[in-house]
Write a structure and sequence with these properties.
Blueprint (H helix, E strand, L loop, with lengths): L1 E7 L5 E10 L17 E10 L5 E2 L9 E6 L2
Antiparallel strand pairs: 1-2, 1-3, 3-4, 3-5
Length: about 70
């Protein structure tokens, strides 16, 4: 699939784009996130996967784009 992975602050502003419509093979993948320029706190990340045929997929193959919360501590 082609994957976009973005990080947002609590105001909904994009603070990082880790993947931008990049091809990712099936299975587990890792992406390095350098949050050294960000303050400690709560952030959100959104993963959007687009199948080769153009369909929007989530990790289970459904047409939903998951948003998850994460805590950045320094």
């Amino acid at each position: 699939a082609f994957v976009t992975l973005k990080v947002y602050d609590v105001l909904g502003q994009e603070v990082a784009k880790l993947l931008d419509h990049e091809r990712v093979d099936e299975g587990e993948s890792e992406v390095e996130f350098d949050g050294s320029h960000l303050a400690s706190g709560v952030y959100f990340y959104r993963i959007q996967a687009e199948g080769i045929d153009g369909a929007i997929l989530n990790l289970r193959g459904n047409s939903v784009t998951p948003v998850r919360k994460m805590l950045l501590t320094k």
